[in-house]
Amino acid sequence: MIELGLTRVASLLQQTPLSWKAIHIAGTNGKGSISAYLSHLLSAGGVRCGRFTSPHLVDRWDCITIGEKVVQESLFRQIEDQVKLRDQTLGIGASEFELLTATAFEIFNHERVEVGVVEVGMGGRLDATNILNNVLVSVITKIGMDHQAFLGSTIEEIAREKAGILKPGVPCVVDNTNSQEVVETVQAYVQELGIDSLFVSPATVSEQIPALASYFQDLDLEPHQQENICCAVSALRLALSQLRPEMDAFSLLPYLADVRWPGRLQNIVLQPLIGRTKPILLDGAHNAQSAEVLGKYVDRKMRIQGQPVTWVIAASSGKDLAAVFGSIIRPGDRVATAEFGPVDGMPWVQPTNAKDLACSIQAIQNSGQVQSFEEDLLTALRWASEEAQDGPLVIAGSLYLVSDVLRLLRAQK
């Protein structure tokens, strides 16, 4: 169950003041990638860094890293047990995400990190992570229609909620490629708080960050990757100016090439799960904005001479299926609809029924063959592999589907 608010997490952490500084990141898309860029660059610069993102990918504790390494399971469970005992003893009744947030923050204390890179779970203003009070820089990424039942029915209302992480005296970085409504909403809140701000984009990077403009010329990056890197490097500069004023942030740019963010435009080989030896594209696109990015990438890189694409897809219950899949699936594509399994620590997350999803896909696009596979992901993967032969094959629609695929693959090794 999702219940926003700061009272319960404040009670969980009232006896343990946070001993580290934070970089706080909110938005609809790009949060995880920017978190990965920042923690990697800080670690490369010798800063002891923790990272907390959500949801987890394969194991419940892999959402917490120390020095770019996933926290040890034994330490995670030890701290988690302490937090849960405190919750029970004090009768707080914290939610799963609040318990996880407190666990992550306690682990950062225990591991004596200097900086914690923290991604918002949902929204911003009332998100459990907004208990942070020693923030170096706040980051607002790309914002779209997101969790309207909790955050508001208009893009302006949602942007205001996400901008709720901004704090007096704390500089912020904002993705200036956002829609005009989002940019104006965030600008208005920045002015209310009277804080320093940087609205950044690849279009203005040559003026704002000349060294980064040169870096982009040397790499084949997708537009959204450039946008995320602009935000990350801008935030890095602001953070280092307070932590390591003698350090040149631009000297760390070569380390960007080493950053890997699983489940985002990730090419994987699924042998021995299936017979196919050619790579498959794995992407957790699960909302309209991220699906649009994926659709453009697939159209440009994979639909060679109009070749159809074979998809394995799933979606969380309640998603706007037309908004997610309408921009990626084309007439003539073959589609296997599947379901992801139970999500550890998030029992309220349920998949859309595979048959219902198949009906929706047929209504959205005049696709080729659409086949549903209820609770049988491996069979769906094998069917899609046979249909695709050596042609393009993509798995998308849900991060939880990505998680299940990676778990299946790990179990075979």
Automatic annotation (TrEMBL):
One of its GO terms (biological process) is one-carbon metabolic process. It catalyses: 7,8-dihydropteroate + L-glutamate + ATP = 7,8-dihydrofolate + ADP + phosphate + H(+). GO terms for molecular function: ATP binding; dihydrofolate synthase activity; metal ion binding; tetrahydrofolylpolyglutamate synthase activity. InterPro entries: Folylpolyglutamate_synth (IPR001645), Folylpolyglutamate_synth_CS (IPR018109), Mur-like_cat_sf (IPR036565), Mur_ligase_C_dom_sf (IPR036615), Mur_ligase_cen (IPR013221). One of its GO terms (cellular component) is cytosol. It is an enzyme of class 6 (ligase). Its EC number is 6.3.2.12. Pathway: Cofactor biosynthesis; tetrahydrofolylpolyglutamate biosynthesis. Keywords: ATP-binding, Ligase, Magnesium, Metal-binding, Nucleotide-binding, One-carbon metabolism. Residues 25-174 form the Mur ligase central domain. NCBIfam families: folC. Belongs to the folylpolyglutamate synthase family. This is Dihydrofolate synthetase. It comes from Penicillium coprophilum.
